[in-house]
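ugh ok fine here u go
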Amino acid sequence: MASETTYKNFSKTILQGINTCLSIAKIIIKSKFKNKLPQAEASSCYVLANGPSLKQSLEKHYDKISKGQLICVNTFSITDEYTRLKPKYYVMIDPFFWNGKTEVITNTLKAITEKTDWPMYLLVPQAATRSEAFQNIVSKKKNVILTPFNYTVF
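structure:
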């Protein structure tokens, strides 16, 4: 019984080691080391995620949030707060934003294109930079800077 447990633990350790090595190799192969993210301009920032908690936070802390460096995500561009707060960074990590064709995605990308009249970094995974959706935005809006980052799932 003890030898069976030892064998299972040994096998599990070897398998985890192999998976770790494969994951590290995947990161090295898929990463673009020339990607440069924009320098932070403030010592703190606020991430504006969608949902009821954002509405409550804005009601309670609007003055503080509006004066901070802002990062928004997902479908924030279709909200009224998007043009009022003018986030400096917009992060889209979900592949549906560059592969999908739903009404929500179309409206989100259209809102970025039509509403953004301030400098903003659009941060997307390296693999998404060639997508028609994002190329369309940056071709129409010179103030939207397409900024790739390394994103590898393992």
